[in-house]
Give the backbone structure.
Amino acid sequence: MKAKPAAAPRPSRARARARSTSIAAFVVLAALVPTTASASGTQEVEAELPYVCALPSGQLPATVRVAAEFPARAEVGEAFTPSGVTTTVELPEEAVADLAGRGAAEVRAATRLDVGVAQNAATARAAWRGGAEPVALPESGPLTLVTRGDVPSVAGRGDGDLTFSAGSLTIDLTLAAADGTATGTATADSGSVSDSSSGSDSGPGSLTVDCALAEDAPGQGLLATVPVGTGTGAPSGSASPSGPAGTSGAPDDGQPDGRGDRQPERQSERSPKVLENTPGTAPDRDDVPPCRYDEQHPPTDVSLNAYVTGYANVKKLKGAAYLPPSCVLIEQGVPVPGPPDPDYLIFDTVSYANFHYQERRQTPPFEATFLSFDFAPVKATMVLEQTDTMRIDSRMKMSMTDFSTTTDTYVRAPLVLHVLDLEVNGTPLDVGSECRTETSLVSEDPDPANFPGDHLVLYGRGELLIGQPATGYLLLSGGVLAGEATIPAFTGCGTDGEDLDRLLTASVSGPGNLIKQVQGQTCAIAAPVFPSPTNEGQCTEDLQPYEIPVAEH
């Protein structure tokens, strides 16, 4: 499908590199009160923190409870990531009435918490995001939203305690009626409910709720404390020098390092480093399939290409399958004005994409090994095959007050899982050539009325604040997309009268399989950006994507 070029400028490579890859993953935060470190070198934290949220009915109290794990201590320059973050957000009964008054019967939450990270006199900030599956509004009592997600890694730049403190909290609620259709368009003083479909009069409604930490919050929002280095940790606001900047071994942030006319900074005064989560190394280009347009697939003036990779959980087998870097060819759509909103300038864009491997709309073959029924080793070779074109719906909202932008992107992909080879306990089983799921992997769609049928749904959010790098997922610069899928029953598996459908269905099929996909920076074929001394580049000389992304758990 052909489309005209988008009017929006491409984000710089520097912005793409600076993004936080925790976006498709999300978290809502409350106070974390550290407990005693466990024998494994971690400290388990559980906390409860009060917030005050601006809802249409007024300023209302909210309670947030969080469970997470932090390391007991860390070395200077050592990056670590809080893990196992699970948060329960409780909005009062008045909030339920606000949502029900807009015709909502269920809601889906996406959240962002501003987290302050401090060490001695130096500070940094991180965005912690979270997401939840749709939940029905209760008939009475408070609304409880349970969110889970990843958070950015952090590294201390010198000796001293590294502290994490909660700041402002934003909750984006997608509203749906009892029949699954979207609620209507409305506005409120504390936020807006608006049609968010692309090219439809009945897309999901949304309400943005801004929350502030309550004045009586314990420890002024202190979440956790992690000792760093060999020192005992200087009091907040003090400086305990431990050598010149650059000697800590902490990752370089590209900031001035004290050379020239500046006096060298003391190590303890360097801001803590908030990092992208990059747990692995990108594969060599020789180890990934080509990703270029050809005579059978000629590019247009809006053609993009990119690599994607990631992991897909198989809940029944208690493991994850690695999805190798795969080529995606994308036709970028034209931004069109979205629904009117007094507080935002809104644009919607619909793009289309296809996997491209050996002239087929599929991923390269990938292997996964699991323990079936907890004791039998099973090794399978599989591919994901498209049954139709992938659709990418993006909505950009620009605030009319501070000109910050958020972009919500939903990727809808009809994909069947095709099993090529199967071994059980080292013994090959002939699955035949037509062993696959009966239908596409299935996700709960936030807008089922406009997008019926079986397909996988992946979601990502990108944010851009004036004067700061872009974070999260954007179609052009990439980032993390996440979702949850049901694996359907298998069909066509087995030869010579041997039916393996029930074996695969019993051991693999079912709901609750999390998927986390990382898309790399795109290459714009009509206006390629090549590497140079002043630019990292977006395209190779033969117009393939320059970046090969790294999969993340």
